[in-house]
Amino acid sequence: MSVQTQTASRAASHAAVGAGAQPILDVRSVYKRFGGVEALKGISLQLYPGEVVALAGDNGAGKSTLIKTISGVHQADEGEILFAGERVSFATPEAARAHGIETIYQDLALADNLSIGANIFLGREPVKKVLGLFPVLDRGAMAKAAQETMAMLDFHVNRLDAPVGRFSGGQRQAVAIGRAIYWNARVLIMDEPTAALGVPEQRKVVSLIKTLKAQGRAIIFISHNLQDIFAVSDRIVVMRRGALAGERRIEDTNHDEVVKLMVGG
């Protein structure tokens, strides 16, 4: 894609989001190398509040490297990343989370034997003191957080205190999303959130993403499922062999064009 085409595409996206809007995330000409392999070749991407940008491409296109560079797993060799207009360089995923960037990977990183509340606070459990002396887990605070967070997602299960290992795939995805928004995520990166789910569960996840969008959260949505991409996304960014193959607004493209961009046809 030429520089002129990239500029025009980003300008169109800016206009669609709203005049004067500032991207919450602005990735500028980022390169990442692993030895002699150039995994990212000058990738640029903008993401606005309340927008869903899909990231598509075949295996090896560089999608995982890009999201790991955004989220602090890798550091860029060249280029820059701006968050809310401020240049950032995250040394760790914890640093990215502290800024409000949460990544939900396919494995969800949930503890199956624990409740929703316990998973929300995993590693950050609230404590209270008994008789002013002995610290114990504040299970009441955890249960309240679970109830309020799940209500924000219009998510309902019979027992909030049940182990999440008993939940369906879509319900587990909701718990992972709930954990992210409880900790005030402003940008969510979702890696194949509908993979290995049945059609009803896929629809539930798509509904959750629409709820997040309505709340003004910005989402990078990685998926091989073009039907889901077209259902929830505002824009699609296609990568091929570490480079930007194309960027389109959803209403201006179709499945065939996206596939051609992915394979280079």
UniProtKB/TrEMBL annotation:
It holds the Pfam family ABC_tran. Keywords: ATP-binding, Nucleotide-binding, Sugar transport, Transport. SUPFAM superfamilies: P-loop containing nucleoside triphosphate hydrolases. CDD domains: ABC_Carb_Monos_I. InterPro entries: AAA+_ATPase (IPR003593), ABC_carbohydrate_import_ATPase (IPR050107), ABC_transporter-like_ATP-bd (IPR003439), ABC_transporter-like_CS (IPR017871), P-loop_NTPase (IPR027417). PROSITE patterns: ABC_TRANSPORTER_1, ABC_TRANSPORTER_2. One of its GO terms (molecular function) is ATP binding. Residues 25-262 form the ABC transporter domain. Belongs to the ABC transporter superfamily. This is Simple sugar transport system ATP-binding protein.
